[in-house]
Amino acid sequence: MATPRLETARLILEPLASEDAAQIQRIFPRWEIVRYLIASVPWPYPDDAAQQYVDNVALVSSREGKGWYWTLRRKDSPQTLMGVICLMDIPDNNRGFWLAPEWQGQGYMMEACRAVTDFWFNVLDRDVLRAPKAAINTRSRHISERSGMRLVRLQKGDYVAGELETELWEITREEWRNLNH
């Protein structure tokens, strides 16, 4: 299934496109964004890394039906990319996201997570959503907690910032539907 455009009260989630790489390249390479991302994210971030990622990872995964990637944009400023959120058909790693620091703490990512989680369960008809995160990433953990997810496992993980304790959070389709209906 192709990645559809989604909307929330304040956001437009546009399917990621090759043209988005230029904005991503401008706002993404900041330590406060990348430090808790998986270690495969190159750091320092090369000048062409966003274009390489969008064209050769995200869009390939989308075409193969194994990933759904969106840019986050405010409805009152749809030309401005704020971050990216994705769903992936990868065991124990179904949702990932990042948001530029200037937009954090305003509930935008929580809105986006609700929309894509609903898509995961009610459109893609998946049974469970799992999201790993660095335990030290308290903002991400709060989103999982407020989304009704529960912590199911602790392990070590490799991040841009180094080896860190990793939490695996999950929610089932039944739990999601009970919370949202």
Q: In terms of per-residue confidence, which ranges show pLDDT below 50 for 5 or more consecutive residues? A: none
Largest sheet composition: 5 strands, antiparallel
Helix percentage range? 25-40%
Indicate the mean pLDDT: 97
CA-to-CA gap between the ends? 25 Å
Cα-atom radius of gyration: 15 Å
| Biggest sheet: strand arrangement | 1-2-3-4-5
> Any idea what the shape is?
globular
The structure class reads: alpha+beta
* Tally of contiguous helical segments: 6
Elements, N to C (H/E): EEHHHEEEHEHEEH
Total strand segments = 8
- Percent strand: 25-35%
Would you give an account of this structure?
- This protein is of the alpha+beta class and 181 residues long.
- It is 32% helix and 30% strand.
- It contains 6 helices and 8 strands.
- The strands form 2 sheets. A 5-stranded antiparallel sheet has the order 1-2-3-4-5, with helices on both faces.
- Strand 4 and strand 5 (95-99) form a beta hairpin.
- It is globular.
Provide a compact summary of the structure.
This protein is an alpha+beta fold and 181 residues long. The chain has six helices and eight strands.
What topology emerges from the helices and strands here?
Elements: E1 6-7, E2 11-15, H1 21-27, H2 31-34, H3 49-63, E3 67-74, E4 83-88, E5 95-99, H4 108-122, E6 128-134, H5 138-146, E7 150-159, E8 162-172, H6 173-180
Antiparallel strand pairs: 1-2, 2-3, 3-4, 4-5, 6-8, 7-8
Helix pairs in contact: 1-3
